[in-house]
Amino acid sequence: MIHIMSRNKINLIGIVTITLSFCVLLFFATKNSNYYDEYTKKENINSFRHNKLKNNYYYSSESQQQQLVTQNLSVTIEDVLNFQRQQLADEMQYYEYPNGRFGVDAKNLRDLTPETGGAPMRSVIISTWRSGSTFLGDVLNALPGNYYHYEPLLTYDIVQIRGPPNDSKAIKSLKKLLRCDYTNMQEYLEFGQTHNYLFTHNTRLWNQCHLFPNFCYQPKFLEPYCKLFPLQSMKVVRLRLKIAARLLEDTSLNVRILLLIRDPRGFLQSRKHRVWCPGNADCDNPNIVCKDLVSDYKAAEKLAKKYPMTFKAVRYEDLSLSPYDMTQEVLQFYGLAFDDRVAEFLDTHTKQNVGGVSSTFRDSKSAPFHWTKELPYNEIQYIQDSCKLAMKLWGYKEASNASELLKNFNPLLPFPEFN
Ligand SMILES: *[C@@H]1O[C@H](CO)[C@@H](O)[C@H](O)[C@H]1NC(C)=O
Ligand SMILES: *[C@@H]1O[C@H](CO)[C@@H](O)[C@H](O)[C@H]1NC(C)=O
Ligand SMILES: *[C@@H]1O[C@H](CO)[C@@H](O)[C@H](O)[C@H]1NC(C)=O
């Protein structure tokens, strides 16, 4: 009798705690969502709903787990790990392992999961704001078994890291995350608790976070959870390539870096409409952002020679015009299979416009070129004057007058050959 009563009491405390932490989480999420309007809750709900509808697999496993939770409040971290381990085994069942292709030996799940001493495929995207990295990040996350380290440098706000004093700290954090080491990452984890978009893009983590918010930001959960995953992706928009190159120098990290470039006229036009950008020189000043593009080019030239297998650069415009071919090329570079689930993602995300400003559902053939119609010609001229070298190096053509832009202006020159 006493035993049953104390058990009920514990359950009650459990319910109250979980409900309270959920409310606190919701409160902060709502409070802060205005700041980065591109990550509105509405959009997260849309993409979540989309996943549910598109993917019966997630749907069924999730409701299955919901049952587990509502029926039993004494679920432990170990239970969640066991559940996810089984999920991953199912998800990876039909995955095509590299088995020697693209310079990767891995033949099965154990060869890739850190918890079994395997070396995961580590795929990093280096880019800058409004350059298509959300889209490409979601392409990688459409692969089965992927754990997505989304924008780990969000805590640095709207700045670029080009050198001291923040570069070593930033690189150290990225390396730790890529190794699933969440110790001494308080700043990052505290930021996540009040800005849930740090984790929502990592769908396979968020599935558990919204069921078990009490585990979500604890290193003792995150570390073993992360180590279950055979594919690890990361996208970063606040670190310039010459600094990110340090990840390649550390060969034990086994990482591949893709630099994603966009026409400065395109990203500057897009940034004008984001509340967090205007007024931050690293984001809205054409001279500064185009110096970054030049610096990235110089770094890319060196890296392409030094690390032909583990470094590659692509343009967002080329990716958008040929999403299937370019995605195939990108995945091949990363040593990843072009899985059916990626094809399905492209089918549903490149053919029509759905959702808000940061929605990745776009008509991909027109999305990169909106600026030709929407940016006033005097602003285009100002950007072109500030960005002459950057545009020349990356193969973007200047418009010579306003009327040229009205006639299906093609801003693309051949992409630079680095090798
Ligand atoms: C609740 O979950 C725990 C841990 O998985 C298990 O040992 C226990 O038997 C479960 N209780 C019920 C009532 O299902
Ligand atoms: C980056 O460096 C500056 C100057 O030292 C410092 O004020 C700032 O707090 C640093 N940012 C982070 C996120 O550490
Ligand atoms: C605009 O530029 C194009 C390409 O240089 C040129 O062919 C055209 O004559 C120009 N039009 C006007 C109105 O200057």
UniProtKB/TrEMBL annotation:
Keyword Transmembrane carried by entry: yes
Domain of life: Eukaryota
Swiss-Prot/TrEMBL GO biological process terms: N-acetylglucosamine metabolic process; sulfur compound metabolic process
Domain Sulfotransferase: 123-389
Annotated InterPro entries: Gal/GlcNAc/GalNAc_ST, P-loop_NTPase, Sulfotransferase_dom
Pfam family, one: Sulfotransfer_1
Molecular functions per Gene Ontology: N-acetylglucosamine 6-O-sulfotransferase activity
Family matches, as SUPFAM superfamilies: P-loop containing nucleoside triphosphate hydrolases (SSF52540)
Keyword terms: Membrane, Transmembrane, Transmembrane helix
Record flagged with keyword Transmembrane: yes
TM region(s), chain numbering: 12-30
Signal peptide bounds: none
UniProt name for this protein: Sulfotransferase domain-containing protein
Native organism: Chironomus riparius
